[in-house]
Design a protein that fits this description.
It is a single chain. The chain is built from 25 helices and no strands. The protein is mainly α. The longest helix is centred in the N-terminal third of the chain and has 25 residues.
């Protein structure tokens, strides 16, 4: 899917997108019945009363992103922009809409959109595999793959996308059984795995799946199984297992694997170096990690934003916040712009509301758009401290940037209000999120308040 430069994305969000959203909301307020979906009619001639906008794929994708947590509004907008502005949806905009529908388990509607798409690609079904797997509908994901012959997409790429989706959403047992278990040799599975070779790439996906489940013993067992099965371990294999060792509390073993790679003559890429820098920073200190970063540059491997984020995080965890700010300043000068995670690392260690709000303004002004995780983190932080004024400042910034709050943002706000005894306002937001179909936490304070009424 097309990724936008952060500054261009900021321009769309603050200029074109609000105008488009305003038109959409105005048209919806005048409509007495909801548009039918997903079967579109032939697009109408664009309404001359509307402000003429230059619509392109990027604008539509960014606007749809604002409705990621409100599938009905997203679907209405998807239909509206076609019928009112004559926009011809692309494979990418269809894929995004299908992703939103899948997020809310609206798989029937998603399949209808797939049927009406003029063209599908591997991303279309990768989205479906991902959403089925995240909904724990493993058999449905496999059945979806089996039908890809209808679209000439039943190939190794789609099979790997299926395995990757299962592993990504913690269905590693099923993925391993499908690829390497006894069932994989049965006749009934021939139409799934075909003649695909279960090589290093598949083993790496499964190893990464065990890593995501944090089953450290199973990771070690599977790492050893790769040797028994004669699988050639590559750079990616080592990178995953170094991460396993680091995250399981054994960073020194990750450093040992790094030395083993160097002995074998495996050239490290930036991902592998990042894992080692993280491990060595935890086991031997941030200064050693910085020195390894310098060695990495000398060997011709350019650091990326993740490298800098690791250094920033290590500095913050060691109470060296001023030095973290210096790294933040250097990143832009070295053509490696900070991202959301960079700012999150610093937000976590700041303890003064004014400093946090100043950094949030700097983040937005630099063209880095806060995401919903940013707002959840800050609202929770201010809520724990008992400061409601900055909570509402942050909430307003979120709304101004066109983001639709999800259940985590709502729950963080409601918790802060309940903590301060503002039950009526908390109940208002609780009802608002329920009306959107989002899951609210059960709060005795709000239930008691309703009973008293």
């Amino acid at each position: 899917m097309h990724l936008l430069n952060p500054r261009f994305r900021h321009f769309i969000v603050t200029n074109i997108q609000p105008s488009l959203i305003l038109q959409f909301h105005t048209s919806q307020s005048k409509t007495t019945t909801k548009p039918s979906f997903p079967n579109h009619q032939t697009p109408k001639t664009p309404n001359p009363d509307h402000e003429q906008l230059t619509l392109n794929q990027s604008t539509i994708l960014e606007t749809l992103s604002c409705y990621n947590n409100d599938w009905k509004r997203a679907m209405d907008f998807f239909n509206w922009v076609e019928s009112e502005h004559g926009f011809k949806h692309t494979t990418e905009t269809y894929n995004h809409m299908i992703d939103v529908l899948g997020k809310f388990f609206e798989f029937d509607l998603a399949r209808q959109l797939i049927d009406e798409m003029p063209e599908r690609d591997h991303t279309t079904f990768r989205v479906m595999f991902k959403r089925y797997a995240s909904a724990h509908l493993v058999q449905e994901a496999i059945d979806c793959y089996k039908k890809l012959g209808e679209f000439n997409l039943k190939d190794e790429t789609s099979f790997l996308n299926l395995v990757d989706a299962l592993c990504e959403y913690k269905h590693v047992i099923e993925a391993e059984e499908l690829c390497l278990g006894k069932e994989s040799k049965d006749e009934k599975f021939k139409d799934v795995i075909g003649s695909f070779e279960m090589g290093t790439k598949v083993y790496n996906m499964i190893l990464r799946g065990w890593f995501k489940m944090r089953w450290w013993g199973k990771c070690r067992e599977f790492w050893e199984q790769m040797d028994k099965d004669g699988v050639c371990k590559d750079l990616y294999s080592y990178s995953i297992y170094m991460d396993v060792q680091s995250k399981s509390g054994k960073p020194w073993k990750a450093v040992k694997l790094y030395k083993e790679m160097k002995k074998k003559g495996i050239k490290l890429d930036v991902v592998a170096y990042n894992t080692v820098i993280q491990a060595i920073g935890v086991s031997e200190g941030v200064d050693v990690a910085v020195n390894l970063g310098r060695e990495m540059v000398e060997l011709g491997c350019e650091p990326n934003v993740v490298t800098y984020n690791i250094i920033v995080k290590l500095l913050c965890e060691n109470g060296r916040v001023r030095e973290a700010y210096k790294v933040l300043d250097k990143m832009s000068k070295r053509r490696c712009a900070p991202n959301v995670i960079t700012y999150h690392c610093i937000f976590r260690c700041l303890e003064k509301p004014n400093e946090i709000l100043a950094l949030l303004d700097r983040m937005i002004d630099s063209g880095v758009s806060p995401n919903l995780d940013t707002y959840v983190m800050l609202i929770r932080k201010f809520g724990r401290w008992g400061f409601l004024r900055p909570v509402f400042i942050v909430w307003k910034k979120m709304e101004d940037h066109g983001l639709s709050p999800n259940e985590f943002v709502y729950n963080a706000l409601i918790d802060a209000l309940v903590e301060k005894g503002m039950i009526d306002m908390a109940r208002k937001y609780d009802e608002e999120m329920l009306a959107k179909g989002l899951s609210a936490k059960l709060r005795p304070e709000l239930v008691k308040g309703e009973c008293d009424d």
